[in-house]
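Table S7 (text form). Paired inputs.
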Amino acid sequence: MIKVSGRLRFPALSRLLDRLPPDFDAVADARGWQSLYKRRERPYVTTQIILFAHGFYREFLQDCYEDLEAGKDTHMEGIYYQRLAPLAKDHKVIFRFPCNVAPVGFPAARTKSYTQLSQLAVNAIRGVARRILPNWWI
């Protein structure tokens, strides 16, 4: 099962799928373990694109909205991280995409496009950094 933000396209999705093990339970880009500058106080997973084995999602994540309603976090990104982190030791949870999967389209929070020259430069740097420093966010 692949969840993507509907306003975005992901041309590198097939490359990501080719690089993942076929039996993963969850795959998400997590921002929380390490950052180039500091450790995040409130780790989260990005939800522009996130992948789950259907049975794993149904068993462990389908009721995440209840945590949101209960006020355990203010965003689903944080709740997904809180749920996935303890499951990672016993399940195949991948917290870092093996390749850069840059979106194409317009972000929700700003009027700029992901295809602007400045964003394309950032995407290129991130793509190289994933190979050199795969566990660091830049």
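Next pair, protein 2 of 2.
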Amino acid sequence: MALCARWILGVTAVLLAWASANAVRAEESGMLELAVKATFLYKFQPFVIWPASAFPAPAAPFVLCVVGKHPFGLLLDKVVEGARAGDRAVTIRRLATVSPDDHCQILYVGTDDPVVAKQLEAPVNGAPVLTVTDEIKEQTAKGIINFVIADNRVRFEIDNAAAMSRGLVISSKLLSLAVSEAAGP
């Protein structure tokens, strides 16, 4: 009986260790995904041209806004720390709601709910703001850029027609990296 109990304890310990290792890998994978998305958010800006009207003043900062859920924590701050967008300082604004007065150039919409995504993005609809959503499936709720996971990698879709309708010009280099280019809503 003691031998059987030791065997069960041994098997249980191995199973717990395996489950723990998988949980750690899943957590590390989730952190890596967030780090990649945070980096992409900042790295999109050199590949997009905004009209002068997107900035309230010639020396205004380049503003990256996050509305809804804020999944990045301090990752985004670390990515953009000391960064510049041309001659402009880069600032991050975390918002409960967004308005045109926030002067966002990039707006990350933190929700996977298409109805909420549409509501959060509505105040800047038509403005020269690069909207970025995260794994939204419904075409009409996606931002200009929508993060997707393809082949276990963070990728993105681009709706170039929506970008052009807002006065944004997306580089052909960035367009070539997208997993798909949407035709628009």
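The chain has five helices and ten strands.
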